[in-house]
Write a structure and sequence with these properties.
The chain has 10 helices and 11 strands. It has about 280 residues and is of the alpha/beta class. The strands form 3 sheets. The chain has a 6-stranded parallel beta sheet. Strands 3-2-4 form a 3-stranded parallel beta sheet, sandwiched between helices. A two-stranded antiparallel sheet has the order 9-10. Helix 1 packs parallel to helix 10, helix 2 crosses helix 10 and helix 6 packs across helix 10. The longest helix has 22 residues. The N and C termini lie far apart (about 55 Å). The structure holds NADPH dihydro-nicotinamide-adenine-dinucleotide phosphate and 5,10-Methenyltetrahydrofolate (GUE). The site of NADPH dihydro-nicotinamide-adenine-dinucleotide phosphate has 26 residues, from helix 10. It comes from Amphibiibacter pelophylacis.
Length: about 280
């Protein structure tokens, strides 16, 4: 018996319908939620993701602005564009697509985004809100992973969750969200000598390393929930995650596919954060 598939596309479709309904109500009351997406440079993968984000806004009736800038854009010019969007009352969310060209410092750029428009949840303010358990923007990818885990109907409280990866945008906030849901959380990284020692104990494993085959079936506890954040290409150029799907699905209880798992939910949570931002704006 194989693992049950956690269908990120189906969950996205459902959640986006709900977001569209709430967005339409807010628009009718005079505030149309608006998202601005800034892309610097020509990275083809980034261009695909950014287009998906803008298209999702259009499908849900959100206002969107797509600012495509040349690779040579100076940091000062980028900061000026962000400043203009900070002041633009039709914009409730600002996303600067990562990674940025090397001559631009991502921390400076993130700090320039008004904290009340930080729908990526990347700012120090949003990170602090999450650590302290205060309301605020949750980073879209881990937020989406929580929705995927919840969709299994299995309780999270009291479970042992293992997160592989500790980036500021995925691994660390993922661990904090699971902790907030009362899981017992272990965080592994490239300095962890033996991943299997930890993952074989885990009821929930979230893998976010950017390395194919980080998790194999022999390192999974039977019945576990496995969430695959990775976006990689295999030798044939096909999209694949960080999890060896073929071996893990034979052992796990639930598993997310790549594509069709975490990716669509990341975009859905961006739309959710943009709507929440517009709702807060309207309430002020
Ligand atoms: N589907 C989606 O919506 C999204 C997908 N992604 C994808 O998720 C993956 C991770 O992204 P991101 O967090 O930004 O990546 P980073 O490169 O910033 O972080 C990777 C993390 O994994 C750890 N790591 C790397 N190799 C190993 C290993 N062999 N064993 C254990 N830990 C390891 C690193 O450890 P250390 O800290 O020690 O270096 C680091 O903490 C990528 O494939 C990315 O493309 C990212 C964002 C959204
Ligand atoms: N400021 C910023 N915010 C981000 O949220 C952000 C970012 N920068 N930089 C890059 C990562 C990556 N990321 C993805 C989003 C959607 C899919 C996605 O939709 N994936 C589809 C497949 C898409 C395809 O076909 O390539 C899927 O998994 O089914 C993937 C990856 C957001 N990121």
């Amino acid at each position: 018996m194989g693992a049950r598939l956690i269908d990120g596309l189906a969950l996205s479709r459902q959640s986006r319908q709900d977001i569209a309904t709430r967005a339409a109500a807010l628009t009718a009351s005079g505030t149309r939620p608006g998202l601005a997406v800034i892309l610097v440079g020509e990275d083809p993968a980034s261009a695909v993701y950014v287009r998906n984000k803008v298209r999702a806004c259009e499908e849900l009736g959100l206002h969107s602005v797509f600012d495509k800038c040349p690779e040579t854009l100076s940091q000062a010019d980028l900061l000026a564009r962000i400043d203009a969007l900070n002041r633009d009352p039709s914009i409730h969310g600002i996303l600067v697509q990562m990674p940025l060209p090397r001559h631009i410092d991502p921390h400076t750029v993130i700090a320039a985004i008004s904290p009340d428009k930080d729908v990526d949840g990347y700012s120090v303010q949003s990170a602090g809100d999450l650590v302290c358990g205060l309301p605020g923007f949750r980073p879209c990818t881990p937020y989406g992973c929580m929705k995927l885990i919840e969709s299994t109907g299995q309780p999270i409280a009291g479970k042992h969750a293992v997160v592989i990866g500790r980036s500021n945008t995925v691994g660390k906030p993922m661990a904090l969200l699971l902790l907030q849901a009362n899981a017992t959380v272990t965080v592994c990284h490239s300095g962890t000598p033996d991943l299997g020692v930890h993952t074989r104990q885990a009821d929930i494993v979230v893998v976010a390393t950017g390395r194919r085959n980080t998790l194999t079936g022999d390192r999974v506890r039977p019945g576990a929930i496995v969430i695959d954040v990775g976006i990689n290409r295999d030798d044939d150029g096909k999209l694949c995650g960080d999890v060896d799907f073929a071996s893990v699905q034979q052992v796990a209880g639930w598993i997310t596919p790549v594509p069709g798992g975490v990716g669509p939910m990341t975009i859905t949570m961006l739309l959710e954060n943009t709507l929440q931002s517009a709702q807060r704006h309207a309430a002020r």
